[in-house]
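User: quick one, fold this
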Amino acid sequence: MELKSQHRSLKISLIFKIILLVALIGIIVRIAIWENYYYHHEEGRERSTPRVFGDVSTDSTDVDETIPTEESKQNYYVDPDKPRYLTIEKISLHNARVLPVGETPKGAIQVPRSIFDVGWYTGSNPPGQGGTTIIDGHNGGPTLQGVFKNLVLLSVGDIITIEMGNGIKYNYRVHDNITVSLSEANQKMKTLQTSPIQNTESISLITCTGEWSALQRTYLSRQFLRAVRI
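Assistant:
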């Protein structure tokens, strides 16, 4: 009888241990599933609602890689006091069309669909009226390089030209050109709203750069360039 009792106790103990093991495995599986969900659905959530007015819209899956013809560029017209073309000789950028852009519902600055056009943020002053003009453009699309792919190559002293709708051209000299991480971008955006030299008209150029994050659907760095009118 005693032997049977001990056998029964061992059996109950084994069953209890199996139940605990199954429960532990279940907990581990649930944690793993939760972590997987979190990282795929929550990572980058802070960036989906910029803390300041800026950053650029970075959904590069819906872009136009059609190369504009010279005729389409020549036939592009804007009001006399609005920017029409952007030229940067050093990086072989000639008469890129300047399109007016606003903000996305999330507060980011819109970017033209064409990777060969640049966007003038209409929340900033147009060139020639003092203050700071903010212009953005694509680094690239799925298969082709964008208008600002080589923006990083510009250095202090390089010249940027904006032609207005009335044909007047304004020249700007690069003052600074920096690459910042995504985590720094929000705070750095504030510096792009003002001129690097007090009481001097300026332009600020913005593009995405660095490594592409499929998870966050954005490049992990920003290129910020400031230039002053000469």
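User: anything notable?
Assistant: Strands lie at 83-88, 93-101, 118-121, 132-137, 159-164, 169-181, 202-213, 218-229.
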